[in-house]
Amino acid sequence: MMRAPGCGLDLPERTADERQGPGPCNPIKSYRFQDRVQSARPCWSGRCLFSSSNGRYYFDIRFGTDVYNPNIVPHPKFNNTWYIVGQLWADDDPAVHANHFYEAGCMAQFINGALMDIAGFNLNVGPRDARVFVGPQNPFITFGSNSGYTCLGLWIQDFRQLVDWEYELMTNTDFKVGTALQRPGTYFPLEKNYFLFWDDHDQMHVHQDMYPKRMFASLERNGSTGPDLAPKAATFDEKCLTRYMPKMPPDLESIHQATNSLKITMCNRADKKCSPHAGNTFIMAIIQHKTYYSYHSEYEPYVVLFQQRAPYELYAISKKPLWISGRKRHTGRATDMMYVTSVNWQERGVNYHGYLDDIAILGFGYEDKGSGGIDVRACDLLVDMGPCEEP
Question: Beta strand 67-74 with 179-180: parallel, antiparallel or unpaired?
Answer without folding.
Answer: unpaired
